[in-house]
Amino acid sequence: MGKNYQLRKLVFAGLFAAIIFVGISVLRIPLPAVVGRPFIHFGNTLTILAVMYLGFGYGAAAGAIGLGLFDILNGYAATAWLTVIEAIILAAVVSVVFRMLDYDEDHLTTLFIVSLAAGIIKLITSWGTGIIEALMVGTTLKVAVIGAFTSLLAALINAVASFLIVPIVYMLLVKLGFSRQRFNP
Fold first, then answer.
1. Helix, strand or coil, per DSSP, at residue 42
2. What DSSP state is assigned to residue 39?
3. Segment holding 40, helix H or strand E
4. Alpha carbons 123 and 129: distance in angstroms, whole number
5. Cα dihedral sign for 72, 75, 81, 87?
6. Which residue of 4, 78, 94, 130 shows the fewest CB atoms closer than 10 Å?
7. What's the CA gap between 164 and 149, in Å, rounded?
């Protein structure tokens, strides 16, 4: 019985990774920025959902593979490693906050708190990534910090979208019979 659940989680992790990759590839809106080439997408939203359903390990793997593979295949290969680290940090925060709140999937408040924590950590990691990217091209630390901060618009929009979309989609999936207990006996 345990191997069946592991296989199910592995299959769903692969599906989440594929959905994340395809979702970013098909639906992205580029934004101007001082540092990097940011765009609005739903990859982080889907990563949050993957972690909430599959737990840290499989959810982080799905996010890292989906987001990282997109970067590698779409001109962001030099910084794909930063995206993978961001996905793992995002997954860790979502997992910890979700566990602290006892996986209460019937409370919309719980889902909004998890989404808020995810949005905040995404802003922080995006800022850190922007600093590292700016330093990689030879700017000074002061310029990198300021440039990365001025480039956070896409991260802010993605964070707000995740904050609003994750609870709604999660509740819809629960209503359709996809509860977290199906993946975590």
1. coil
2. E
3. strand 39-40
4. 10
5. negative
6. 4
7. 23
